Structure formats: C-alpha cells, structure tokens
C-alpha cells in the first residue's frame, strides 16, 4: 500500500490510464471484427451497399487506431500493423469480386 502522497497519486493515475487503455483496445477490437465481418459478407454477396459497409467500417477502424496511437494506448508500429491487416483484408475482399464481375 502507498505510504506517501505522490505514490497514492501514481496509483490513481495508473488506474485511470488502465481503464482508458482497456476501453480503447476493446473498441478497437470490436471495430476490427466488424470490418473483417463486412469483408467476408461482401465476398459472399457483393453489392454497392455491402461495399459501402466495408468502406465505412474500415474508415471507423482506421480512425480509432489513429486516435489510440495519438493518445499513447498503442505503439505506432502496432497501429500501422493493424491498419495494414485491415487494408489487406479489404483489398482481398474487393479485388476478387471486381475480377469476377469483369
């Protein structure tokens, strides 16, 4: 247990940061799962509304990743890696569908 004022304050700050980090990471995982789900749905049944859902979910995930990196929840390389994974999934979902239509 903390004995002096500064160590008590550090404990409070660490708890506040832990809760903030947890909420960012949870929201990030949710948005990434939504994007992957939208990609698989688009692969199954391509259409303009499905493509819009993919683009919208990717945009929301990118925004959340950038904010998490800016706040310091994620390392910038981790954020870049996750954005790369999302981009690859979207490209694989959209490109084959476009090749089938052509």
What attributes does this structure have?
0% strand, mainly alpha, elongated, single chain, 102 residues
The CATH class label is Mainly Alpha
Number of helices: 3
Q: What is the N-to-C succession of helices and strands?
A: HHH
CATH topology assignment:
Methane Monooxygenase Hydroxylase, Chain G, domain 1
What radius of gyration results from the CA coordinates? 19 Å
Distance between the termini: 68 Å
- CATH superfamily label: Ribosomal protein S20
- Largest β sheet strand count, sense and barrel closure: none
**What are the low-pLDDT stretches, counting only 5+ consecutive residues below 50?**
none
What percent strand?
Answer: under 5%
CATH architecture: Up-down Bundle
β-strand number: 0
Percent helix range? over 70%
Any idea how many domains? Answer: 1
Mean pLDDT: 91
Structural class: mainly alpha
Describe this structure in words.
Helices cover 88% and strands 0% of the residues. With 102 residues, the chain is mostly helical. It has a single domain, classed as Ribosomal protein S20 (Methane Monooxygenase Hydroxylase, Chain G, domain 1, Up-down Bundle). The protein is elongated, with a radius of gyration of 19 Å. The model has no long low-confidence stretch (mean pLDDT 91).
Brief synopsis:
This protein is mainly alpha-helical and 102 residues long. Helices cover 88% and strands 0% of the residues.
Strand and helix layout:
Elements lengths: L4 H40 L3 H24 L4 H26 L1
